Amino acid sequence: MAWRQILFFNRRLISAPSNSSVPTGFASFSSKSNPYIVKVGIPEFLNGVGKGVETHVEKLESEIGDFSKLLLTRTLKLKKLGIPCKHRKLILKYTHKYRLGLWRPRAEPVKA
User: How much is the mean pLDDT over the chain?
Assistant: First the structure.
């Protein structure tokens, strides 16, 4: 019985005329976007992560240099640079999320 209802509902959605501008059966999303930083570098990235990781900005900029290289850096390289375990985990966690497109550092609100 439940399968019949699911199939009937799906057929009704597919066969519905698409004359309206809003598709039926879909949630409407807000067009207001969150403020994101346009250019992401090592300092912006580490400040976005927070939790004390931003103290390693100078070290990572001098040794790694580029943000794209930071995204490919492994834990052993970070360990050799003397970054503590908790901070290494955070950096690697957020670089993975950034590569997948699940997270980006937020823009700082401008203070007047």
Answer: 79
